[in-house]
Amino acid sequence: MEPAVRARYTSEVQAKVAAAVGATPEALGTPGGFESFVHEVGVPGSRRIVKATWHERRTLEQLGAEHHFLGALADAGAPVCRPLPLASGELVASVRAGDGHFHVMCYEHAEGECLTRDAWTPDLFKAWGAMVGTLHRIAAAYVGPPAPLSRPTWQQEYTEVVGMLGDARARSALEAVLADVRALPRTPGSFGSMHGDLHRHNVHWAGGQPRVFDFDDMLDFWFASDVAIVLYYAVLRPIWHADDKQADYDAVKAAVLEGYRREHDLPQAAWDTLPLFLKLREITLLAVCERSIPASERPPELVADMAGWRSRTLEGRPPHDLALP
């Protein structure tokens, strides 16, 4: 998160957030989150997640569109966390913080836990793929929110990402990837509203079943990108083959696609775009970390990761140095 936004989230602001939820400031505890402040709160009758988002990141209309999509997914049986009313009965409240404000929201708590790599199996990735396929099957029939609710277009989102990169050569590399994305066809069932950030920290598992949350990055985009994001983060660290990332990638991809196709499928031309969306995720990750994490706060592992992302981007090598078709 940008340091200037973090500095505005004072104890006084957190007290206002607690009041909006109907909880005590002590109940909020220490916030987590990367691009929004996130608290797990126990209120009478339930546990819930509280999120405070800086107003420059999302407008009220954009948050309303996110909630509309979440409601449509939940109503159709998708394993997602619904938005919940605040103390006022509304789904979003705004609290003043210096020269701006934070939007406050509540969501259902996802039971279970985020699984570490030592718990990952091919069957788990099949279930993960099936969950993504379920989201896309429902989203393919989703007509969008009523006006004036709306989300930024993918072009607007990635224009912002380009501006996060400090290196002109990296910006040019991203522009080249985006030019290839713009040329893709929007075939039925392959483009629509999607999560946009389906890494392991946004999925909880209980009884072998996933439940996904944090739709903050949702946008209308090619569904293959959601699948590529699962694959990209899955092999960020070794799973089953300590010295063979390619073997991990091939095994994860086979399992995820098998599960996905149980619920939804894409034409072969869409699957052929996975390398393009893997590359887009790697450059996007570099940009977000450059913007949001000051150099002085980057742990050694992240410094090494960013060096790899940057060198592959500038040298035109594939993500993770994988052999991709």
Which secondary structure elements does this structure contain, and how are they paired or packed?
Elements: H1 3-8, H2 11-21, H3 25-28, E1 37-43, E2 46-54, H4 60-75, E3 83-84, E4 93-97, E5 100-108, H5 122-139, H6 154-164, H7 168-182, E6 191-194, E7 203-206, E8 209-212, E9 219-222, H8 223-234, H9 245-263, H10 268-271, H11 274-292, H12 300-315
Antiparallel strand pairs: 1-2, 2-5, 3-5, 4-5, 6-9, 7-8
Verbal overview:
The chain is α+β, with helices and mostly antiparallel strands. The protein has two domains: 106 residues, Phosphorylase Kinase, domain 1, CATH 3.30.200; 205 residues, Aminoglycoside phosphotransferase (APH), C-terminal lobe (Aminoglycoside 3'-phosphotransferase, Chain: A, domain 2, Alpha-Beta Complex). Strands 1, 2, 3, 4 and 5 form a five-stranded antiparallel beta sheet that branches. A two-stranded antiparallel sheet has the order 6-9. It has a two-stranded antiparallel sheet with strand order 7-8. The model has no long low-confidence stretch (mean pLDDT 94).
Estimated structural class? alpha+beta
Record field, number of beta strands? 9
Instruction: Count up the domains.
Output: 2
The rounded distance between the terminal residues' Cα atoms is: 35 Å
The whole-number mean of residue pLDDT values reads 94
- As a percent range, the share of helical residues equals 40-55%
Which range does the strand content fall in? Answer: 5-15%
H/E topology pattern = HHHEEHEEEHHHEEEEHHHHH
CATH homologous superfamily of the largest domain? Aminoglycoside phosphotransferase (APH), C-terminal lobe
